[in-house]
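Technical annex, item 7. During the second reporting period the consortium partners agreed on a shared format for inverse folding records so that results from different sites could be compared directly. Each record opens with the tokenized structure and is followed by the designed sequence. A conforming record, contributed by the partner at site C, is shown below for reference.
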């Protein structure tokens, strides 16, 4: 069994803050001097307004900080400390490193090395394979959004091609296509479509456009994309041949009647499903996820081989988190527990 003192170096509090070492609060508030943001999604920027007032530094990757500005976060410039992947910074005797994660542009894992040799880490949200593995950890805190055994996508290696084929088929019917998803996933979807040869221009709301510009600046290969407010965007809409990239929760006020694809991770039965059809108008669900499924999350833990595992039970259901912890202990023989405590 792991000593309680070791667990005290890595824990999840009741606010959803990941606490590593004695100085770092990650993805929520705990009153510590260093606030770290793993990525820009709202469940990882919890109580940021409190951290802005009390923390000495706010740490994240460059694209994460740029994306947060686009999404309306006003961040105190004098406290911002952008860090590149792999660069280590010492805060007195504790050393912080951000490790590349495949989730959304700028997403990062967090590694903290303590003066007594203890190494603790937090994955944040991630896809796997594709995310760099943190090894030789005394404690690993892991995201297990899809941590239940039935949450496995047997088609996950083919989904990019299947998604692109669906978009191509719908475009061939002579009408535009709406693709709906969350920030980050929309930019990934555009990059996928371009990699499979889909050449129709992308049109999008201004906020999605500005976030796409951040993604392009930091490496995603996206071209022929336009704000719906631009002259080019308006001309393309009039032409009737384009893909409209929309936030999942936004109402469609631009295209009154067309085919629509919703991107979701919460779908495991099949890669693609038609849910509605009325004449030429169709609605589809595509199982395009930016999270590791159960199988890949287990594989990450198996390769990382931490001495002990903490499952983040704040950002997924308690039942799913506990199921994952039990599977880790049964399959891998690694001590695992769920935090925060009930």
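Designed sequence (site C submission):
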């Amino acid at each position: 069994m792991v000593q309680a003192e070791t667990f005290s170096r890595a824990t999840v509090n009741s606010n959803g803050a990941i606490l590593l070492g004695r100085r770092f609060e990650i993805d929520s508030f705990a009153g510590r001097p260093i606030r770290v943001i793993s990525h820009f999604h709202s469940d990882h920027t919890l109580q940021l307004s409190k951290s802005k007032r009390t923390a000495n530094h706010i740490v994240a990757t460059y694209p994460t900080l740029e994306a947060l500005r686009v999404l309306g976060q006003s961040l105190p410039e004098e406290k911002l400390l952008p860090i590149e992947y792999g660069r280590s910074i010492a805060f007195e005797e504790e050393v912080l490193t951000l490790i590349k994660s495949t989730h959304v542009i700028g997403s990062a894992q967090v590694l903290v090395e303590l003066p007594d040799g203890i190494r603790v880490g937090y994955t944040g949200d991630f896809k796997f394979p594709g995310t760099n593995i943190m090894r030789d950890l005394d404690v690993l805190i892991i995201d297990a959004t899809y941590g239940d055994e039935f949450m496995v996508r047997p088609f996950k290696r083919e989904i990019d091609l299947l998604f692109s084929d669906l978009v191509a088929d719908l475009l061939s019917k002579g009408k535009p296509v709406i693709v709906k998803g969350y920030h980050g996933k929309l930019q990934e979807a555009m990059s996928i479509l371009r990699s499979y040869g889909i050449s129709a221009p992308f049109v999008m709301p201004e906020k999605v456009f500005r976030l796409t510009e951040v993604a392009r600046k930091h490496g995603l290969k996206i071209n022929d994309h336009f704000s719906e407010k631009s002259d080019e965007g308006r001309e393309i809409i009039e032409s009737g041949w384009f893909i409209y990239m929309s936030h999942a929760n936004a109402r469609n006020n631009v295209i009154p009647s067309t085919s629509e694809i919703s991107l979701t991770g919460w779908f495991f039965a099949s890669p693609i499903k038609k849910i509605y059809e009325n004449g030429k108008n169709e609605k589809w669900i595509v199982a395009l996820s930016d999270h590791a499924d159960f199988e890949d999350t287990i594989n990450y833990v198996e390769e990382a081989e931490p001495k002990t595992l903490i499952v983040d039970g704040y950002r997924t259901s308690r039942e799913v988190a506990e199921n994952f912890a039990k599977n880790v202990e049964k399959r891998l023989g690694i001590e695992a527990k769920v935090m925060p405590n009930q």
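The first helix runs from residue 4 to 8. The chain has nine helices and 20 strands. All partners now use this format for quarterly exchanges.
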